[in-house]
Design brief:
Belongs to the pyridoxal phosphate-binding protein YggS/PROSC family. Keywords: Pyridoxal phosphate. Pyridoxal 5'-phosphate (PLP)-binding protein, which may be involved in intracellular homeostatic regulation of pyridoxal 5'-phosphate (PLP), the active form of vitamin B6. The protein is about 35% helix and about 15% strand. Helix 3 (about 75-95) runs parallel beside helix 11 (about 295-300). The relative contact order is 0.14. The two termini are about 20 Å apart. It is globular. The strands form 3 sheets. The protein has an 8-stranded parallel beta sheet with strand order 12-11-10-9-8-7-6-13. It has a 3-stranded antiparallel beta sheet with strand order 3-4-5. The chain has helices at about 35-40, 70-75, 75-95, 115-125, 135-140, 145-150, 165-170, 185-195, 225-235, 260-275, 295-300, 310, 330-335; strands at about 15, 15-20, 50-55, 60, 65, 105-110, 130, 155, 175-180, 205-210, 240-245, 285, 305. It is α/β, with parallel strands linked by helices.
């Protein structure tokens, strides 16, 4: 992909230092809080076309916004994974010390991507993968090549789950976590199905919170969180509550401050821990995707869901048919806003 400035985008001079050439296009060490200042400082004369880089791995140029992460994906899965993991560690270094010192987990979201790409990522050290559709996850996780080549793989389900698809999801080999429990009834169904499976280990689950208040998003109201977690802990012995998850609104302008949806999830965890006497470091936060995972980590995320930055842009014309559980307006809106 050619950069807006001309030449190969993965080898463009960084605007902060014209003589410096870096693999993914610009300096990712800039913190998200410096985004507005540095974008302004690197702008062209009198606000004209200029260049700026921010902590999200973006550059601003004469033709608008482009993502350094998408360039690294074009160079191969291994290169992209190294780039993302480096950016994860940079974000960890910027995280305030009063936050729980939990090493963030990278979930590589492989939706619509072939088994060979999962195997390639696994070969480069990635172990945790995420999928949005039950049917696609079941088929991919059951793929003989993945089963034989990826013995330590862990699957997270990160899409909306309706009760009629619970049994199918519980049949997924190497299912490690369900991140999207959004009701007590769903928790009960998952608990019952996991019990029938006879697994010796409890299934790890997160409770999904609708932090943005958008009707197009699934998840509990923040005010429903404590009661739902209490229910899981008391009534669902086959489930292990491990954290909170949110999608949040998209396109937040960091020059206006931290993403308010991430701040809501932090507040929900604080209230939950206080009322149920749970240490904060025992409640993970799953927030942040390809466009904002560094900012999410900076403010406290312990689980980021990154897809297109690792595997490249998706061709939705080739994706499997939607699960019956996801053929509704809410889920359609969520899945088109890529991880």
């Amino acid at each position: 992909m050619a950069s807006p400035r001309g030449g190969d985008s993965h080898d463009s001079p960084c605007p902060a230092s014209p003589s410096l050439r870096v693999p993914i296009g610009c300096d990712n060490s800039v913190t998200s809080s410096d985004w507005a200042t540095q974008s302004r400082d690197w702008a062209g004369p009198e606000g004209g076309a200029g260049w700026g880089c921010g902590g999200l791995g973006r550059c601003v140029g004469p033709q608008g916004m482009w993502r350094a992460g998408s360039m690294s994906a074009e160079l191969g899965v291994g290169f992209a994974l190294r780039s993302v993991n480096e950016r994860v560690q940079q974000a960890v270094a910027r995280r305030p010390r009063d936050l729980p010192a939990i090493q963030p987990r990278l979930v590589a979201v492989s939706k619509t991507k072939p088994a060979d790409m999962v195997i390639e990522a696994y070969g480069h050290g990635q172990r945790t993968f995420g999928e949005n559709y039950v049917q696609e996850l079941l088929e991919k996780a059951s793929n003989p090549k993945i089963l034989s080549s990826c013995p330590e793989i862990k699957w997270h389900f990160i899409g909306h789950l309706q009760k009629q698809n619970v049994n199918k999801l519980m049949a997924v080999p190497n299912l490690a976590m369900l991140e999207t429990v959004d009701s007590m009834k769903l928790a009960d169904k998952v608990n019952s199905s996991w019990q029938k499976k006879g697994s010796p280990e409890r299934l790890k689950v997160m409770v999904q919170i609708n932090t943005s208040g958008e009707e197009s998003k699934h998840g509990l109201l923040p005010s429903e969180t404590v009661a739902t977690v209490e229910h899981i802990n008391a009534k669902c012995p086959s489930l292990e509550f491990v954290g909170l998850m949110t999608i949040g609104s998209f396109g937040h302008d960091l020059s206006q401050g931290p993403n308010p949806d991430f701040q809501v999830l932090l507040s929900v965890r604080e209230e939950l821990c206080k009322k149920l006497n749970i240490p904060a470091d025992q409640v993970e936060l799953s927030m942040g995707m390809s466009m904002d995972f560094q900012h999410a980590i900076e403010v406290g995320s312990t689980n980021v869901r990154v897809g297109s930055t690792i595997f490249g842009e998706r061709d939705y014309s080739k994706k499997p048919a939607l699960d019956k559980s996801t053929a509704d307006l809410k889920t359609s809106a969520e899945v088109t806003q890529a991880h």
